[in-house]
Amino acid sequence: MSLKGINAYKKGNLKQDVANADPHKLTLMLLQGALDRIAYAKGAMERKELQEKATFISKATAIIIHLRDTLDVKVGGEVAENMFALYEFMIEKLNEAHVNNDVKLLDEVSSLLTPIRDAWVQIPQEAKEEAFRAQRESKQAI
After folding, report:
1. In the chain, count of helices (H) and strands (E)?
2. CATH of domain 23-129
3. Stated pTM of the model
4. How far is the C-alpha of 56 from the C-alpha of 50, rounded, in Å?
5. Residue 96 carries which DSSP code?
6. For this UniProt entry, which segments traverse the membrane (predicted)?
7. Closest to 33 measured CA to CA, from 4, 2, 5, 67
8. CA dihedral in degrees (37, 46, 104, 111; nearest 10)?
9. Which end of the chain has fewer CB atoms within 10 angstroms, the N or the C?
10. How many Cβ atoms from other residues are within 10 Å of residue 61's Cβ?
């Protein structure tokens, strides 16, 4: 099977996963996607493939911007404000890594994002369901 065929298959599976995912799973997919793009950017940077590096850093940045922009500071309070600041910091470091071709900055962002992803994985199922119900109810109240 060609690489093109494999990539098309992966995209089809991703679309299906997104369509069937709850908000918790979508966030987890975004966190993992950002980590993957950072790893790909690191590899491209080490191989001096500048176009690929730029593409992957851009994609990782876009994911983190999305995560930042979906925070609800009114509901999340101080925790959401801290996450917003952390995401801002990561975006700045990704931009610096791109401009300076600095693998260490990519590693720094990865080291900040990994514990968030790991903590997200550890959320109990009951808490996920409760949060989803509360979110749905607040949207219905509007």
Report:
1. 6, 0
2. 1.20.120.340
3. 0.80
4. 10
5. H
6. none
7. 67
8. 30
9. C
10. 23
